[in-house]
Amino acid sequence: xxxxxxxxxxxxxxxxxxxxxxxxxxxxxxxxxxxxxxxxxxxxxxxxxxxxxxxxxxxxxxxxxxxxxxxxxxxxxxxxxxxxxxxxxxxxxxxxxxxxxxxxxxxxxxxxxxxxxxxxxxxxxxxxxxxxxxxxxxxxxxxxxxxxxxxxxxxxxxxxxxxxxxxxxxxxxxxxxxxxxxxxxxxxxxxxxxxxxxxxxxxxxxxxxxxxxxxxxxxxxxxxxxxxxxxxxxxxxxxxxxxxxxxxxxxxxxxxxxxxxxxxxxxxxxxxxxxx
Length: 276
What we know:
The chain is an alpha+beta fold.
């Protein structure tokens, strides 16, 4: 859709007066030119810089420790730990709602995406209600490209933490998902890159911050899985977030003025698409 943000590359100084969507659209053009070069080098994905050491590659996550920063390394040959309650190829899809729902809503988003937050703040409750009422099930396809576009590692770190929440239950994932958007930092602030901050946010979800959850977030247990999820998004053909499709048909969830649809407008889109 024309109102989506598109992946990657730092906004230029000339873009200071532009909106977040315009800056990211401009950034995408720069990213396309950089793709060929990027394939030839090791890229930092997610919480991490990918560091070549003695012929091996290490995925690292930063975490605060008594005011300092330490890295928890995840070896590239470490088996991917897939959270419970995943779906799709290689467990890269998160499904919320009744498995036998007659329709499927696919949601493509990035936890750092400010446009995704706009939509969540407006139509988010209606999106969830459609799944809770059994109209459709939601398939979440999560991205992490904004770490390249905005700098930092918050997208992939938040995605890995969401994997830890998913391991506790689909309902816990959805609640944590909503908390992340409700507390999304400003686009230039990599707040989600701090696992301690993510743990503080997790405390807002009743019953989520278990010992197992805390250990998984702190140690980066689901970082390799998060990378697979982000890679699956990159291979999906979807070029921007948020993107919503219902039974394969894209929903125009932003108006011509770039405003997110209201809950009432969203419900109307769903009825029109499903014939309900």
